[in-house]
Write a structure and sequence with these properties.
This protein has about 350 residues and is an alpha+beta fold. It is about 20% helix and about 30% strand.
Amino acid sequence: MKTVILGAAALSGSYQAMACTGISLTAADGSYVQARTIEWAKGPLKSEYVIIPRGESLRSYTPTGANGLEFAARYGVVGLAVVERDFIAEGINEVGLSAGLFFFPDYGSYAPYDSRHNHTTLADLQVVEWLLTQCATIDEVQERVKRVHIVGLERSSVVHWRIGEPSGRQVVMEIVGGKIHFFDNVVGVLTNAPGFEWHLANLNNYVNLHPGSATPRKMGDFILNPIGGSSAMLGLPGDFTPPSRFVRAAFFRNSAPQRSNGHDTVLECFHILNNFDVPIAIENPDEKTLPSATQWTSAIDLTARRVYFKTAYNNTIRCIDLRAIDFATIKYQWHPLDSVQTQPIEMVDIK
């Protein structure tokens, strides 16, 4: 348990090193995809894919031990976890509900931990694991969270969540002042602090931006002409703060062409999120070995029930197909995202 608390505290205490960006896209055939990055600039982040079978017995941690909420998996789950296998940062269950956590420092605040409620206490970093094993719909999530007490494993409250259904419905869940709030995600984007409603209001500062080129105009006798393409996006913020990433992701996502199917939409998401790869020196100039602060990027096709991911060490996109898994018989398991931390390079055969 001490290792778990130290890991959670390290993540929370160094939240400046976390810079997650999430987007979602819908294909012309109705396929719905949620994608995201996960950043950590303080060294290699232990990352694993986790497979949870139906019926698996699980238990939440609390700030005092592995003595929180006990629950059995109603649904099989595939998740991408950080630090501990229980800390699923992004995942999907066999009926298509998907969820992910995004760090949310300073603006969220859980109700105080009370050991008298340990039997209903759920650690914030285990909320994704819990709701994916228990719930089939967003409506069910909204009802079931009323029955648990969500707490942090250390003093900072640092997480909010994105939850989506195959229908394309998506909500953001935030806890402020101990109260749970749900927001329909009308722009299909999520980053970190401040709160979701603040990010939506901030988008109004960029009402002048649109795809394409600006129209030439006169200033007195001087004609103003665009310099280069995409000039109508001049003023789009380019830094890596959460507000700037939210704005940039919203415009990229909402100007992206609609692809015909889920496969092509997954690839579109990866292309868009390439723009959010954070160079390691931007976050941590002292880090010399980590290739990128963006440690992995994922895309989940909620319609096809497929999890795709690539990492800082290997940009090859890998896929886990939930429909090929028998969640009634498979064993509970977890494996590193990279068995070997080496980028494959294909040599061109010249004849």
